[in-house]
Amino acid sequence: MFADRAKIYVKSGKGGDGHVSFRREKYVPNGGPDGGDGGHGGNVIFEVDEGLNTLTDFRHIRKYAAQNGETGGKKNCRGKNGQDMVIKVPAGTVIKEAETGKVIADMSGENKRVVLLKGGRGGNGNQHYATSTMQAPKYAQPGQPSKELELLLELKVIADVGLVGFPNVGKSTFLSRVTNARPKIANYHFTTLNPNLGVVDLEDAKGFVIADIPGLIEGASEGVGLGHEFLRHIERTKVMIHIVDAASTEGRDPVSDIYAINKELEIYNPEIARRPQVIAANKIDMIYGEDTAVDRIQTEFEPKGIKVFPISAISGEGVRALLYYVSSLLDTLDDAPVIFEQEYFPDLAFADTTEPFAVSFDEEAGEYVVEGPRIEKMLGYTNLESEKGFIFFQNFLKDTGILEQLEALGIEEGDTVRMYGLSFDYYK
Protein backbone atom coordinates (compact mmCIF):
# COMPACT_ATOMS: atom_id res chain seq x y z
CA MET A 1 0.00 0.00 0.00
CA PHE A 2 1.24 3.50 -0.82
CA ALA A 3 2.04 5.40 2.37
CA ASP A 4 2.56 9.15 2.27
CA ARG A 5 2.20 10.04 5.94
CA ALA A 6 3.72 8.73 9.17
CA LYS A 7 4.25 9.80 12.76
CA ILE A 8 7.50 8.81 14.47
CA TYR A 9 9.49 9.51 17.63
CA VAL A 10 13.19 10.38 17.46
CA LYS A 11 15.76 10.80 20.20
CA SER A 12 19.39 11.89 20.04
CA GLY A 13 22.06 10.33 22.25
CA LYS A 14 22.91 11.61 25.72
CA GLY A 15 26.45 12.86 26.24
CA GLY A 16 28.63 10.60 28.39
CA ASP A 17 29.50 11.82 31.89
CA GLY A 18 32.99 13.01 32.70
CA HIS A 19 34.97 10.68 34.96
CA VAL A 20 36.45 11.32 38.42
CA SER A 21 39.74 9.49 39.03
CA PHE A 22 43.34 10.10 40.16
CA ARG A 23 46.66 8.71 39.11
CA ARG A 24 47.54 5.66 41.16
CA GLU A 25 51.05 4.69 40.14
CA LYS A 26 54.01 3.31 42.01
CA TYR A 27 56.38 6.06 43.11
CA VAL A 28 53.70 8.73 42.40
CA PRO A 29 52.22 9.24 45.88
CA ASN A 30 50.12 12.29 45.07
CA GLY A 31 48.96 11.66 41.51
CA GLY A 32 46.77 14.38 40.08
CA PRO A 33 43.30 14.02 38.55
CA ASP A 34 43.14 11.96 35.36
CA GLY A 35 39.41 11.51 34.75
CA GLY A 36 38.60 11.41 31.04
CA ASP A 37 35.86 13.27 29.19
CA GLY A 38 32.59 11.63 28.21
CA GLY A 39 31.87 10.89 24.56
CA HIS A 40 29.33 12.92 22.59
CA GLY A 41 25.87 11.48 22.05
CA GLY A 42 24.88 10.40 18.54
CA ASN A 43 22.92 12.72 16.23
CA VAL A 44 19.61 12.02 14.54
CA ILE A 45 20.18 12.48 10.81
CA PHE A 46 17.73 12.33 7.91
CA GLU A 47 19.02 11.37 4.46
CA VAL A 48 17.32 11.11 1.08
CA ASP A 49 17.34 7.62 -0.43
CA GLU A 50 16.56 7.80 -4.16
CA GLY A 51 15.48 4.15 -4.05
CA LEU A 52 12.51 4.91 -1.77
CA ASN A 53 9.19 6.29 -2.97
CA THR A 54 6.87 5.74 0.01
CA LEU A 55 6.91 6.05 3.80
CA THR A 56 5.75 2.46 4.31
CA ASP A 57 8.75 1.47 6.48
CA PHE A 58 7.71 3.98 9.14
CA ARG A 59 4.43 2.15 9.70
CA HIS A 60 6.39 -0.76 11.17
CA ILE A 61 9.12 1.07 13.09
CA ARG A 62 8.07 4.24 14.88
CA LYS A 63 10.87 4.86 17.40
CA TYR A 64 14.39 5.87 16.40
CA ALA A 65 17.13 6.59 18.93
CA ALA A 66 20.80 7.47 18.49
CA GLN A 67 23.38 5.91 20.80
CA ASN A 68 24.45 7.56 24.05
CA GLY A 69 28.06 8.65 24.49
CA GLU A 70 30.19 6.52 26.78
CA THR A 71 31.38 7.72 30.17
CA GLY A 72 34.98 8.90 30.40
CA GLY A 73 37.56 6.56 31.95
CA LYS A 74 40.73 6.57 34.01
CA LYS A 75 44.07 7.75 32.67
CA ASN A 76 42.48 10.54 30.68
CA CYS A 77 40.63 8.03 28.52
CA ARG A 78 37.84 9.73 26.58
CA GLY A 79 34.51 7.94 26.26
CA LYS A 80 33.47 6.70 22.82
CA ASN A 81 31.04 8.86 20.87
CA GLY A 82 27.55 7.47 20.42
CA GLN A 83 26.62 6.17 16.98
CA ASP A 84 24.40 8.44 14.87
CA MET A 85 20.89 7.34 13.93
CA VAL A 86 20.59 7.81 10.15
CA ILE A 87 16.98 7.69 8.91
CA LYS A 88 16.43 7.23 5.15
CA VAL A 89 13.44 8.92 3.53
CA PRO A 90 12.25 9.39 -0.08
CA ALA A 91 12.89 12.68 -1.87
CA GLY A 92 10.01 15.09 -1.26
CA THR A 93 9.53 14.17 2.40
CA VAL A 94 8.58 17.13 4.59
CA ILE A 95 9.52 16.71 8.27
CA LYS A 96 7.25 18.53 10.73
CA GLU A 97 7.08 18.91 14.49
CA ALA A 98 4.01 16.82 15.29
CA GLU A 99 2.34 19.04 17.89
CA THR A 100 2.57 22.36 16.03
CA GLY A 101 2.68 21.04 12.45
CA LYS A 102 5.56 23.43 11.72
CA VAL A 103 8.14 22.47 9.09
CA ILE A 104 11.58 21.45 10.35
CA ALA A 105 13.06 20.29 7.05
CA ASP A 106 12.01 19.65 3.46
CA MET A 107 14.05 16.83 1.92
CA SER A 108 13.86 18.21 -1.60
CA GLY A 109 16.13 19.90 -4.12
CA GLU A 110 19.69 20.17 -2.80
CA ASN A 111 18.59 19.27 0.74
CA LYS A 112 19.76 15.64 0.78
CA ARG A 113 21.01 15.37 4.37
CA VAL A 114 19.89 17.11 7.57
CA VAL A 115 21.17 16.79 11.13
CA LEU A 116 17.80 17.13 12.82
CA LEU A 117 18.76 16.61 16.47
CA LYS A 118 22.29 16.98 17.80
CA GLY A 119 23.48 14.59 20.46
CA GLY A 120 24.43 15.89 23.89
CA ARG A 121 28.05 16.96 24.41
CA GLY A 122 30.17 14.75 26.62
CA GLY A 123 30.98 16.09 30.07
CA ASN A 124 34.49 17.13 31.13
CA GLY A 125 36.47 14.82 33.39
CA ASN A 126 37.83 16.05 36.71
CA GLN A 127 41.25 16.73 35.12
CA HIS A 128 39.76 19.99 33.72
CA TYR A 129 38.93 21.37 37.17
CA ALA A 130 42.32 21.22 38.82
CA THR A 131 43.61 24.62 39.99
CA SER A 132 46.47 25.81 42.16
CA THR A 133 44.14 25.83 45.14
CA MET A 134 42.06 22.76 44.20
CA GLN A 135 44.53 20.12 43.04
CA ALA A 136 42.30 17.11 43.63
CA PRO A 137 38.80 17.99 42.35
CA LYS A 138 36.32 15.24 43.14
CA TYR A 139 33.71 16.25 40.65
CA ALA A 140 33.26 16.03 36.88
CA GLN A 141 30.77 17.47 34.44
CA PRO A 142 27.75 15.35 33.53
CA GLY A 143 27.02 14.85 29.84
CA GLN A 144 24.36 17.01 28.20
CA PRO A 145 20.92 15.38 28.02
CA SER A 146 19.46 13.87 24.88
CA LYS A 147 16.81 15.66 22.81
CA GLU A 148 13.59 14.05 21.67
CA LEU A 149 10.81 15.00 19.29
CA GLU A 150 7.66 13.54 17.85
CA LEU A 151 7.67 14.10 14.12
CA LEU A 152 5.13 14.04 11.35
CA LEU A 153 6.53 12.90 8.00
CA GLU A 154 4.61 13.87 4.87
CA LEU A 155 5.56 12.84 1.36
CA LYS A 156 4.61 15.48 -1.18
CA VAL A 157 5.37 14.34 -4.70
CA ILE A 158 7.82 16.38 -6.76
CA ALA A 159 6.26 17.17 -10.12
CA ASP A 160 6.07 20.20 -12.40
CA VAL A 161 2.48 19.55 -13.43
CA GLY A 162 -0.46 18.07 -11.53
CA LEU A 163 -3.56 16.50 -13.04
CA VAL A 164 -6.68 17.41 -11.08
CA GLY A 165 -10.34 16.63 -11.60
CA PHE A 166 -13.23 14.51 -10.39
CA PRO A 167 -12.87 10.71 -10.31
CA ASN A 168 -13.27 8.88 -13.60
CA VAL A 169 -12.66 11.86 -15.90
CA GLY A 170 -9.71 10.18 -17.64
CA LYS A 171 -6.64 11.42 -15.74
CA SER A 172 -4.98 8.00 -15.57
CA THR A 173 -5.73 7.34 -19.25
CA PHE A 174 -4.21 10.71 -20.12
CA LEU A 175 -1.08 10.02 -18.04
CA SER A 176 -0.57 6.59 -19.62
CA ARG A 177 -0.82 8.13 -23.10
CA VAL A 178 1.62 11.02 -22.60
CA THR A 179 4.23 9.37 -20.34
CA ASN A 180 5.83 6.04 -19.59
CA ALA A 181 3.70 5.65 -16.47
CA ARG A 182 1.32 2.69 -16.42
CA PRO A 183 -1.34 3.33 -13.77
CA LYS A 184 -4.02 0.72 -13.22
CA ILE A 185 -7.19 1.88 -14.93
CA ALA A 186 -10.75 0.67 -14.41
CA ASN A 187 -14.20 2.18 -14.66
CA TYR A 188 -15.07 2.98 -11.07
CA HIS A 189 -14.60 5.84 -8.63
CA PHE A 190 -11.29 6.27 -6.84
CA THR A 191 -9.58 3.83 -9.17
CA THR A 192 -6.36 5.70 -8.53
CA LEU A 193 -5.46 5.69 -4.85
CA ASN A 194 -1.77 6.41 -5.37
CA PRO A 195 -0.24 9.49 -6.99
CA ASN A 196 1.36 8.30 -10.24
CA LEU A 197 4.35 10.10 -11.71
CA GLY A 198 5.46 10.13 -15.34
CA VAL A 199 7.91 12.04 -17.54
CA VAL A 200 6.65 13.83 -20.65
CA ASP A 201 9.28 13.92 -23.43
CA LEU A 202 8.75 16.43 -26.23
CA GLU A 203 10.64 17.07 -29.47
CA ASP A 204 12.16 20.57 -29.65
CA ALA A 205 10.70 21.51 -26.27
CA LYS A 206 11.54 20.98 -22.63
CA GLY A 207 9.99 17.89 -21.05
CA PHE A 208 8.42 17.87 -17.60
CA VAL A 209 7.30 15.63 -14.77
CA ILE A 210 3.57 15.13 -14.44
CA ALA A 211 1.61 13.68 -11.51
CA ASP A 212 -1.82 12.09 -11.63
CA ILE A 213 -3.42 13.20 -8.37
CA PRO A 214 -6.24 10.83 -7.32
CA GLY A 215 -9.75 12.08 -8.08
CA LEU A 216 -11.08 14.80 -5.82
CA ILE A 217 -14.62 15.20 -4.55
CA GLU A 218 -16.50 18.10 -3.04
CA GLY A 219 -15.52 18.47 0.61
CA ALA A 220 -11.98 17.21 -0.07
CA SER A 221 -10.46 20.33 1.48
CA GLU A 222 -12.21 19.43 4.74
CA GLY A 223 -10.88 15.90 4.63
CA VAL A 224 -14.01 14.29 3.18
CA GLY A 225 -13.14 11.01 1.48
CA LEU A 226 -9.36 11.03 1.15
CA GLY A 227 -9.22 14.74 0.43
CA HIS A 228 -6.26 15.81 2.54
CA GLU A 229 -4.30 12.72 1.50
CA PHE A 230 -4.65 13.76 -2.15
CA LEU A 231 -4.46 17.54 -1.97
CA ARG A 232 -1.09 17.30 -0.24
CA HIS A 233 0.48 16.11 -3.48
CA ILE A 234 -0.31 19.18 -5.58
CA GLU A 235 1.44 21.58 -3.22
CA ARG A 236 4.70 21.43 -5.20
CA THR A 237 3.24 21.55 -8.71
CA LYS A 238 3.67 24.76 -10.69
CA VAL A 239 0.95 24.21 -13.29
CA MET A 240 -2.28 22.25 -13.10
CA ILE A 241 -4.03 20.48 -15.95
CA HIS A 242 -7.67 20.38 -14.96
CA ILE A 243 -9.22 17.40 -16.73
CA VAL A 244 -12.98 17.47 -17.12
CA ASP A 245 -15.47 15.07 -18.69
CA ALA A 246 -16.77 17.20 -21.58
CA ALA A 247 -19.08 14.38 -22.69
CA SER A 248 -20.84 14.28 -19.28
CA THR A 249 -20.74 10.47 -19.36
CA GLU A 250 -21.78 10.36 -15.70
CA GLY A 251 -24.41 13.06 -15.97
CA ARG A 252 -22.39 15.84 -14.31
CA ASP A 253 -22.06 19.33 -15.76
CA PRO A 254 -18.40 19.98 -16.74
CA VAL A 255 -18.54 23.72 -15.99
CA SER A 256 -19.91 23.05 -12.51
CA ASP A 257 -17.25 20.37 -11.98
CA ILE A 258 -14.44 22.85 -12.72
CA TYR A 259 -15.84 25.41 -10.29
CA ALA A 260 -16.32 22.73 -7.62
CA ILE A 261 -12.72 21.49 -7.82
CA ASN A 262 -11.31 25.02 -7.91
CA LYS A 263 -13.31 25.84 -4.82
CA GLU A 264 -11.73 22.89 -3.00
CA LEU A 265 -8.26 24.09 -4.04
CA GLU A 266 -9.05 27.61 -2.83
CA ILE A 267 -10.24 26.37 0.56
CA TYR A 268 -7.27 24.03 1.02
CA ASN A 269 -4.57 26.50 -0.02
CA PRO A 270 -5.33 29.79 -1.82
CA GLU A 271 -1.78 29.93 -3.14
CA ILE A 272 -2.30 26.68 -5.06
CA ALA A 273 -5.57 27.96 -6.54
CA ARG A 274 -3.70 30.97 -7.95
CA ARG A 275 -1.20 28.87 -9.89
CA PRO A 276 -1.53 28.64 -13.70
CA GLN A 277 -4.19 26.22 -14.84
CA VAL A 278 -5.06 24.66 -18.19
CA ILE A 279 -8.36 22.90 -18.87
CA ALA A 280 -8.39 19.64 -20.82
CA ALA A 281 -11.95 19.04 -22.04
CA ASN A 282 -11.63 15.26 -22.30
CA LYS A 283 -13.72 12.52 -23.96
CA ILE A 284 -14.57 14.52 -27.10
CA ASP A 285 -14.59 11.15 -28.90
CA MET A 286 -17.81 10.40 -26.97
CA ILE A 287 -19.64 13.63 -27.87
CA TYR A 288 -22.39 13.05 -30.39
CA GLY A 289 -24.82 15.38 -32.11
CA GLU A 290 -24.96 19.10 -31.43
CA ASP A 291 -23.50 19.04 -27.91
CA THR A 292 -21.88 22.41 -27.13
CA ALA A 293 -20.15 21.46 -23.84
CA VAL A 294 -16.69 22.37 -25.14
CA ASP A 295 -17.97 25.74 -26.41
CA ARG A 296 -19.56 26.42 -23.01
CA ILE A 297 -16.30 25.60 -21.19
CA GLN A 298 -14.30 27.87 -23.52
CA THR A 299 -16.82 30.70 -23.24
CA GLU A 300 -16.81 30.43 -19.45
CA PHE A 301 -13.08 30.13 -18.74
CA GLU A 302 -10.98 31.50 -21.63
CA PRO A 303 -12.01 35.13 -20.89
CA LYS A 304 -10.53 34.48 -17.40
CA GLY A 305 -7.17 33.61 -18.97
CA ILE A 306 -7.55 29.83 -18.65
CA LYS A 307 -6.79 28.09 -21.94
CA VAL A 308 -9.16 25.22 -22.89
CA PHE A 309 -8.02 22.28 -25.04
CA PRO A 310 -10.58 19.78 -26.41
CA ILE A 311 -8.87 16.36 -26.20
CA SER A 312 -9.43 12.64 -26.31
CA ALA A 313 -7.10 10.74 -23.98
CA ILE A 314 -8.20 7.53 -25.76
CA SER A 315 -7.42 8.55 -29.35
CA GLY A 316 -4.80 11.21 -28.60
CA GLU A 317 -6.66 13.97 -30.45
CA GLY A 318 -5.65 17.44 -29.19
CA VAL A 319 -3.14 16.04 -26.67
CA ARG A 320 0.02 17.16 -28.48
CA ALA A 321 -1.08 20.82 -28.63
CA LEU A 322 -1.93 20.71 -24.93
CA LEU A 323 1.49 19.34 -23.93
CA TYR A 324 3.44 21.91 -25.96
CA TYR A 325 1.34 24.71 -24.47
CA VAL A 326 2.05 23.45 -20.93
CA SER A 327 5.78 23.22 -21.72
CA SER A 328 5.80 26.83 -22.96
CA LEU A 329 3.90 27.89 -19.84
CA LEU A 330 6.51 26.22 -17.61
CA ASP A 331 9.25 28.10 -19.49
CA THR A 332 7.78 31.35 -18.19
CA LEU A 333 7.91 30.21 -14.56
CA ASP A 334 10.76 29.99 -12.07
CA ASP A 335 12.83 26.80 -12.47
CA ALA A 336 13.49 26.53 -8.75
CA PRO A 337 11.65 23.64 -7.09
CA VAL A 338 8.90 24.43 -4.58
CA ILE A 339 10.60 24.01 -1.19
CA PHE A 340 8.80 24.47 2.11
CA GLU A 341 10.59 26.89 4.42
CA GLN A 342 11.73 25.91 7.87
CA GLU A 343 9.35 27.11 10.60
CA TYR A 344 10.51 25.10 13.63
CA PHE A 345 14.11 25.16 14.87
CA PRO A 346 14.97 22.28 17.22
CA ASP A 347 18.22 23.86 18.43
CA LEU A 348 16.33 26.97 19.50
CA ALA A 349 13.49 24.94 21.01
CA PHE A 350 15.98 23.05 23.19
CA ALA A 351 18.20 26.07 23.89
CA ASP A 352 18.79 27.14 27.45
CA THR A 353 16.08 29.72 28.08
CA THR A 354 18.18 31.13 30.92
CA GLU A 355 20.91 32.25 28.52
CA PRO A 356 21.39 35.95 29.21
CA PHE A 357 20.70 38.79 26.84
CA ALA A 358 21.23 42.50 27.24
CA VAL A 359 19.13 45.40 25.96
CA SER A 360 20.69 48.85 26.02
CA PHE A 361 20.68 52.23 24.28
CA ASP A 362 23.77 53.37 22.38
CA GLU A 363 23.63 57.16 22.80
CA GLU A 364 26.47 57.81 20.35
CA ALA A 365 24.81 55.87 17.50
CA GLY A 366 21.26 56.68 18.63
CA GLU A 367 20.32 53.00 18.42
CA TYR A 368 18.91 50.37 20.75
CA VAL A 369 21.23 47.34 21.02
CA VAL A 370 20.23 43.76 21.78
CA GLU A 371 22.98 41.19 22.46
CA GLY A 372 23.36 37.72 23.92
CA PRO A 373 24.26 34.15 22.89
CA ARG A 374 20.66 33.09 22.28
CA ILE A 375 20.05 36.14 20.08
CA GLU A 376 23.12 35.28 18.01
CA LYS A 377 21.93 31.67 17.55
CA MET A 378 18.46 32.80 16.52
CA LEU A 379 19.84 35.11 13.83
CA GLY A 380 22.00 32.27 12.52
CA TYR A 381 18.98 30.02 12.04
CA THR A 382 16.42 32.47 10.71
CA ASN A 383 15.91 33.66 7.14
CA LEU A 384 14.69 37.20 7.75
CA GLU A 385 14.14 37.80 4.03
CA SER A 386 11.17 35.40 3.98
CA GLU A 387 7.77 36.31 5.39
CA LYS A 388 7.60 33.24 7.64
CA GLY A 389 11.13 33.84 8.89
CA PHE A 390 10.37 37.45 9.82
CA ILE A 391 7.17 36.43 11.65
CA PHE A 392 9.21 33.86 13.58
CA PHE A 393 11.74 36.60 14.40
CA GLN A 394 9.00 38.92 15.70
CA ASN A 395 7.48 36.17 17.86
CA PHE A 396 10.92 35.38 19.26
CA LEU A 397 11.42 39.00 20.34
CA LYS A 398 8.01 38.99 22.00
CA ASP A 399 8.29 35.58 23.72
CA THR A 400 11.74 36.29 25.18
CA GLY A 401 10.65 39.61 26.69
CA ILE A 402 13.00 41.66 24.48
CA LEU A 403 10.19 43.87 23.16
CA GLU A 404 9.05 44.50 26.72
CA GLN A 405 12.53 45.63 27.73
CA LEU A 406 12.88 47.85 24.67
CA GLU A 407 9.59 49.56 25.54
CA ALA A 408 10.76 49.97 29.13
CA LEU A 409 13.80 51.86 27.79
CA GLY A 410 11.43 54.21 25.95
CA ILE A 411 11.69 52.98 22.37
CA GLU A 412 9.28 54.62 19.93
CA GLU A 413 8.05 53.73 16.46
CA GLY A 414 10.71 54.39 13.83
CA ASP A 415 13.64 54.00 16.25
CA THR A 416 16.49 51.72 15.15
CA VAL A 417 17.31 48.41 16.84
CA ARG A 418 20.71 46.75 16.23
CA MET A 419 21.51 43.07 16.69
CA TYR A 420 24.93 41.73 15.66
CA GLY A 421 25.23 43.84 12.51
CA LEU A 422 21.51 43.65 11.68
CA SER A 423 19.60 46.93 11.99
CA PHE A 424 15.85 47.38 11.64
CA ASP A 425 13.22 50.00 12.44
CA TYR A 426 10.88 49.33 15.34
CA TYR A 427 7.14 49.32 14.65
CA LYS A 428 4.37 47.87 16.79
Explain this structure to me?
- The protein is an alpha/beta fold and 428 residues long.
- 20% of the residues lie in helices and 21% in strands.
- The protein has helices at residues 171-178, 227-231, 254-268, 270-273, 293-301, 319-331, 346-349, 373-381, 387-399, 402-408; strands at residues 5-11, 44-48, 63-65, 85-89, 93-97, 103-107, 113-117, 148-155, 161-164, 196-200, 208-212, 239-245, 277-282, 308-310, 358-362, 367-371, 416-419, 422-425.
- The strands form 4 sheets. The chain has a 6-stranded mixed sheet, sandwiched between helices. Strands 3-1-8-5-6 form a 5-stranded mixed sheet, with no helix packed on it.
- Strand 17 and strand 18 form a beta hairpin.
- It is elongated and about 110 Å long.
Strand and helix layout:
Layout: E1 5-11, E2 44-48, E3 63-65, E4 85-89, E5 93-97, E6 103-107, E7 113-117, E8 148-155, E9 161-164, H1 171-178, E10 196-200, E11 208-212, H2 227-231, E12 239-245, H3 254-268, H4 270-273, E13 277-282, H5 293-301, E14 308-310, H6 319-331, H7 346-349, E15 358-362, E16 367-371, H8 373-381, H9 387-399, H10 402-408, E17 416-419, E18 422-425
Parallel strand pairs: 1-3, 2-4, 9-11, 9-12, 12-13, 13-14, 16-17
Antiparallel strand pairs: 1-8, 2-7, 5-6, 5-8, 10-11, 15-16, 17-18
* Poorly predicted sequence stretches spanning 5 or more consecutive residues: 183-193, 223-228
Q: Give the overall silhouette.
A: elongated
* Mean pLDDT, all residues: 80
Radius of gyration: 29 Å
Number of strands: 18
Share of helical residues: 10-25%
Please count the helical segments: 10
Structural class: alpha/beta
